[in-house]
Structures are given as C-alpha cells and as structure tokens.
Amino acid sequence: MLGTISINTTTFFTVMGILIGIAATVLLYIFVLPENKREKLPKILKVLHDIFNMKQLWLETFLRGLYVLSSTLCITVGACMLFSFSIYDSGRYSYSHWYGGYGILLAILGPVVLRIVFEGLMMFILLVKNTIQINNKLKADAEQPKEENAATEEPQE
Question: Would you tell me which of 56, 60, 103, 157 could form a disulfide with 78, CB atoms 3.0–4.6 Å apart?
Fold first, then answer.
C-alpha cells in the first residue's frame, strides 16, 4: 500500500536565497562599492555602484509618480462611486444606500489632502537636497589650492 507523500521545498529555497543574498552583498562590498574601483567597472556595475552608493535621490521621482497615481485614483474611483449603491431586502426590512456622496467627497477632497501631504514630503526632500548641495559646495571650496585663495584676498594694511 502506498502512503501519502508530501514534499515542501520552501524552507530549503528560502535558506538558499538568504545565503546567496549574503554572498552577493559581500562580493558587492569588496568588488563594486569601493570608490577607487568605480573607473575600472563595466557600465552595468557602474550603475550598481551609483545605486548602492546613493549618488542620486530617487525618492523625489518615486513620490511624484505616487502622487499622480493617487490623485488619479481618487478622481476616477470617486466618479465611479457616483453610480454605486447597495440594496438590502429581507422581506421584513429593506434598506438602500447610494454612495455617490462619498464619491463626490473622494473626488474633490482626496486630491486636495494628497497634495498637502505630498507637498510636506517634497519640502523635506528639497531641504535634504539643498543641504547636500551646500555640503558639496563647501567641500569644493575647502579643496581649492591655498594659492587661489591667497590671490583672491585683498591685501591687509
């Protein structure tokens, strides 16, 4: 008589994925992420180098796309809710409800609330970007040769 056979490989492949991920992280830290190795890397690894060293902020672009999607969804779902209703009738009790009022509120107030929230987030991101630019400018000014700084200064009496 044959018994029931049950095979589950989820644990094995999860552990394998974790081990491969750790090995890939170590290899990236050794061969891709150091700044002095960037020039020798092929183009695809340069892209990985820039992504993992966070050379640019992607959050701003992501949030803009999310804002456009959220606003569009508020308006379209709100418009579709104009036509939605529910009816309940048990013979003894009957109940009906139109969801158009909620749809109008969602279509009008949803994008306004989203705009306020996303503007607050964007102000924070712009603050961070400006701080990074100021730091880079101060770093560049500090690295200028002393001769240039001495030539631009006025002689003191």
Answer: 103
